[in-house]
Write a structure and sequence with these properties.
This protein has a single domain, classed as Alpha/Beta hydrolase fold, catalytic domain (Rossmann fold, 3-Layer(aba) Sandwich), CATH 3.40.50. The chain has 10 helices and 7 strands. The chain has about 270 residues and is α/β, with parallel strands linked by helices. Helix 3 links the parallel strand 4 and strand 5. Helix 4 packs antiparallel against helix 7 and helix 5 packs antiparallel against helix 6. A 7-stranded mixed beta sheet has the order 1-3-2-4-5-6-7, sandwiched between helices. The N and C termini lie far apart (about 35 Å).
Length: about 270
């Protein structure tokens, strides 16, 4: 299958500029980056895409075996890079896509110039001294609720993920994004996302990385951002004043400024 069609790949900006690839988080599509990508289109070749099962992707391409782990999604990233002949990619991933980009960069380090992780978490479940933000029981209940009533779960969880209760339109947008997805694919992706453990992968990442951590984030608390930063061989940590798990929607000027500064120093 054509990779561009499968993942609804879109390209904008400077055709021969350095490539920047933007990957959405769980339940989201590339439109979630619409406040950030224009800031880079005057200098970069901006590549955006949807994970299979979200947005304008080809849901017929979804294979439960391929996407049983994040490795299948990392394969997609590498196939897009190969198909578009992208060298020295600046990969910007939100939430679970931070780990997807990390896996791709571990597999083909020469392909990637820099990584930007927005609200990353290598493991959501607490484990001994590790603070992931959720107990095993929390995750079990979250997934059980999702399995029994995906649309109801979306309406309840999306405002929590977004934060910013004084701006309910943001939570409404995330809810709508979740509800547009195929429920069965979303359910499987949620299980892969919230039960995964990529902590051992972090020291393998040789690509310079910017970690963007929100000051208050119900999904990836500050301890997680610090953990990721401490275990990456070459990283910078910026704690944003923004709250919630989606600063690229709620306060896009903050991640833009942090990314501009990071890119200028390299």
């Amino acid at each position: 299958m054509d990779v561009v069609t499968r993942n609804n790949v879109t390209v904008s900006g400077v055709p021969d500029g350095p490539p920047m690839m933007f990957a959405p988080g769980f339940g989201c599509d590339q439109t979630m980056w619409r406040f950030v990508t224009p800031a880079f289109e005057d200098r970069y070749r901006v590549v955006a895409f949807d994970h299979v099962g979200t947005g304008g992707s080809d849901t017929a391409a979804y294979d439960p075996d391929r996407y049983a782990t994040l490795d299948g999604y990392a394969d997609d990233v590498l196939q897009i890079c190969e198909d578009l002949d992208l060298p020295a990619v600046i990969f910007v991933g939100h939430s679970v896509s931070s780990m997807i980009g990390a896996l791709a960069a571990i597999r083909e380090p020469a392909r990637f110039d820099r990584l930007v992780m927005v609200g990353p978490s290598p493991r959501y479940i607490d484990d001994g001294d590790y603070v992931g933000g959720f107990s095993a029981t929390d995750i079990d209940e979250l997934l059980a609720s999702l399995d029994s009533n995906y649309l109801g779960w979306s309406g309840a969880i999306a405002p929590v993920i977004m934060g910013n209760p004084d701006r309910p339109e943001l939570g409404d947008e995330l809810t709508a994004s979740f509800c547009r997805n195929d429920p069965e694919i979303a359910r499987r992706f949620a299980h892969v996302t919230f039960t995964g453990d990529n902590r051992d992968d972090l020291p393998k990442i040789t690509t310079p990385t910017l970690v963007l951590q929100c000051d208050q984030d119900a999904i990836a608390p500050r301890e997680v951002g610090t953990y990721v930063h401490d275990r990456l061989p070459d990283s910078e940590l910026v704690v944003l004043r923004a709250t919630g798990h989606c600063p690229h929607l709620s306060e896009p000027e903050e991640p833009i400024a942090a990314m501009e500064s990071f890119l200028a120093r390299r």
